[in-house]
């Protein structure tokens, strides 16, 4: 139409279609009411907040999203999903963003989270069970965290709540097989 | 008394920092004529990490245990709310045939049955068998704030546990042993979950809010059903008090410990000495020990 600015919608970005596939949620359904952010217990440390995440996905602001630590701060309490009037499972959107983010190099804001979760998974791969003391100590060591973060360890040891030896499953090969088969299957198609 | 056996998945924390939950659960069940049979050589469920790093892993790990549990003709019992949630999510995904086939190939053993009700939480086990709870000592005068947290109740279509905002199942058990439960609005608010290493500031803030609200509601202790919640509310309580210059002093029990006390199991058997906030003065004050 002459004289009228036609706002052409952006093509659906790669990130958005990944998120929609992984989460099974339609980003366009969100009407920005903000109920998710209102109920989110950690929105106060999120940038962007859950509502803003939905908007950023609608607008295709990929870099802003993937630089942030929102999807790592989210702890899947599922309050947002339980309350969204559009029945969007925002928790699944957060999880999908984390899955995409996990494949990329950590930004400074994401560093500690990725370190922790990757250590957790390698601990699991190695022993089959989580070795709490080992995980805590390696995390603090590799993350160069001050020992003040380990202040509860003496009390835990005194109460016999931590052990110096990892609990291991008998058949660790079986776990390694699971990891290997997943790796083989996922070779293609990862974000 | 009738005897029954259930496959049991304790999970990693119940073998270490939450020993008292495992021990009290087994003792209470034994009193009810229920045997918890620990799954052979079980593997970590992936907890809060696997599902955000690798979705297939987060389904495959619980699925492997579901296959082991299938030889029992009873549902798999989990005690940790985080394990419960991961098992329920896996069972939910496994309703899909393509997913079942893929996971079967990945775990490389056994047929996977399609049964999303095949997993229950320990509270449900006690609730289903509440007639077998023989109360010997009433816990009169104890005012308990039942705290459920996030993962048991949400999302309802996956966990099929209780009301999402106002659950009652733990309250009913606590009332059964004649303790009082307080009415409070934070039953299903988050405690900070597994952020204790990555963002302790968040845990401190959210857990403080819970403890403060429980106290405002008149509780003199809390009951929980999750080792992560327990860690955040009990082990961290001193730090929370220092941080907020707030005097809280609320002992945090596993619900099994309270039921156990009512069965006249001793505080020592129930490992009440493992807690950071010592519950003995409160129990003495109320004439319960
Ligand atoms: S609650 Fe739902 S509709 Fe409202 S802003 Fe959040 S995602 Fe959008
Ligand atoms: S699931 Fe994540 S985004 Fe949703 S309310 Fe909980 S912490 Fe916030």
What topology emerges from the helices and strands here?
The complex is a heterodimer of chains A (191) and B (289).
Chain A: H1 14-23, H2 35-39, H3 50-59, H4 62-67, H5 70-73, H6 79-83, H7 90-102, H8 111-127, H9 132-142, H10 153-158, H11 172-186
Helix pairs in contact in A: 1-7, 8-9
Chain B: E1 4-9, H1 19-31, E2 34-38, H2 47-53, H3 55-69, E3 76-78, H4 81-93, H5 97-107, E4 119-121, H6 122-128, E5 143-146, H7 156-159, H8 169-176, E6 180-181, H9 200-216, E7 221-224, H10 227-235, H11 237-244, E8 252-254, H12 255-262, H13 280-285
Parallel strand pairs in B: 1-2, 1-3, 3-4, 5-6, 5-7, 7-8
Helix pairs in contact in B: 1-12, 2-3, 3-4, 3-5, 6-8, 9-11
The structure holds iron/sulfur cluster (2 copies).
Describe this protein with a few key phrases:
heterodimer, A: 191 residues, mainly alpha, Fumarate Reductase Iron-sulfur Protein, Chain B, domain 2, 11 helices, globular, B: 289 residues, alpha/beta, Glutathione S-transferase Yfyf (Class Pi), Chain A, domain 2, Rossmann fold, 2 domains, four-stranded parallel beta sheet, 13 helices, 44% helix, binds iron/sulfur cluster
Outline the structure in words.
The complex is a heterodimer of chains A (191) and B (289). Chain A is 53% helix and 0% strand. Chain A has 191 residues and is mostly helical. Chain A has two domains: 14-103, Fumarate Reductase Iron-sulfur Protein, Chain B, domain 2 (Orthogonal Bundle), CATH 1.10.1060.10; 111-188, no CATH class. In chain A, helix 1 (14-23) crosses helix 7 (90-102). The model of chain A has no long low-confidence stretch (mean pLDDT 87). Chain B folds into two domains: 5-124, Glutathione S-transferase Yfyf (Class Pi), Chain A, domain 2, CATH 1.20.1050.140; 133-285, Rossmann fold (3-Layer(aba) Sandwich), CATH 3.40.50. Chain B has helices at 19-31, 47-53, 55-69, 81-93, 97-107, 122-128, 156-159, 169-176, 200-216, 227-235, 237-244, 255-262, 280-285; strands at 4-9, 34-38, 76-78, 119-121, 143-146, 180-181, 221-224, 252-254. The mean pLDDT of chain B is 94. The chains are: A mainly alpha (191), B alpha/beta (289). At the A-B interface, helix 5, helix 6, helix 7, helix 8 and helix 9 of A face helix 2, helix 3, helix 5 and helix 9 of B. Bound molecules: iron/sulfur cluster (SF4) (2 copies).
């Amino acid at each position: 139409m002459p004289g009228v600015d036609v706002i052409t919608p952006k093509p659906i970005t790669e990130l958005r279609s990944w998120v929609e596939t992984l989460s099974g949620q339609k980003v366009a359904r969100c009407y920005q009411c903000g109920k998710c952010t209102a109920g989110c217990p950690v929105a106060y440390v999120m940038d962007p907040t859950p509502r803003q995440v939905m908007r950023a996905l609608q607008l295709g602001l990929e870099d802003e999203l993937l630089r942030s630590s929102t999807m790592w701060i989210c702890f899947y309490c599922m309050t947002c999903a339980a309350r969204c009037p559009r029945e969007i499972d925002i928790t699944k959107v957060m999880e999908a963003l984390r899955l995409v983010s996990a494949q990329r190099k950590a930004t400074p804001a994401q560093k500690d989270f990725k370190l922790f979760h990757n250590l957790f998974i390698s601990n699991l791969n190695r022993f089959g069970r989580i070795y709490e003391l080992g995980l805590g100590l390696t995390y603090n060591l590799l993350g160069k965290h001050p020992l003040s973060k380990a202040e509860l360890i003496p009390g835990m040891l005194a109460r016999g709540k931590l052990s110096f030896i990892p609990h291991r499953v008998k058949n660790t090969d079986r776990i390694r097989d699971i990891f290997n088969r997943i790796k083989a299957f996922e070779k293609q198609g990862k974000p | 008394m009738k005897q029954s056996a259930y496959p049991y998945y304790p999970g990693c924390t119940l073998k270490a920092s939450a020993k008292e939950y495992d021990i009290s659960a087994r003792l209470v069940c034994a009193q009810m004529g229920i045997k918890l049979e620990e799954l052979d050589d079980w593997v970590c469920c992936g907890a809060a990490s696997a599902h955000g790093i690798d979705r297939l892993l987060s389904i495959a790990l619980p699925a492997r245990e579901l296959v082991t549990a299938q030889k029992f003709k009873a549902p798999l019992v989990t005690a940790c709310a985080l394990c419960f949630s991961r098992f329920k999510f896996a069972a939910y995904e496994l309703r899909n045939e393509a997913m079942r086939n893929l996971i079967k190939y990945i775990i490389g053993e056994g047929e996977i049955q399609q049964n999303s009700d095949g997993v229950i939480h320990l509270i449900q086990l006690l609730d289903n068998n509440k007639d077998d709870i023989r109360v010997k000592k009433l816990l009169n005068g104890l005012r308990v704030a039942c705290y459920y947290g996030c993962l048991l109740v949400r999302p309802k279509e996956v966990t099929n546990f209780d009301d999402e905002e106002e659950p009652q199942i733990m309250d009913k058990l606590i009332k059964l042993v004649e303790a009082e439960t307080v009415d409070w609005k934070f039953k299903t608010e988050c405690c900070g979950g597994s952020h204790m290493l990555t963002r302790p500031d968040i845990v401190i803030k959210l857990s403080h809010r819970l403890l403060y609200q429980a106290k405002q509601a008149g509780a003199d202790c809390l009951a929980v059903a999750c080792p992560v919640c327990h860690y955040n509310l009990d082990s961290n309580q001193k730090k929370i008090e220092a941080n907020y210059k707030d005097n809280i002093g609320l002992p945090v029990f596993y619900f099994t410990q309270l039921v156990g006390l009512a069965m006249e199991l001793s505080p020592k058997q129930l490992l009440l000495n493992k807690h950071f906030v010592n519950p003995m003065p409160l129990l003495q004050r109320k004439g319960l020990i």
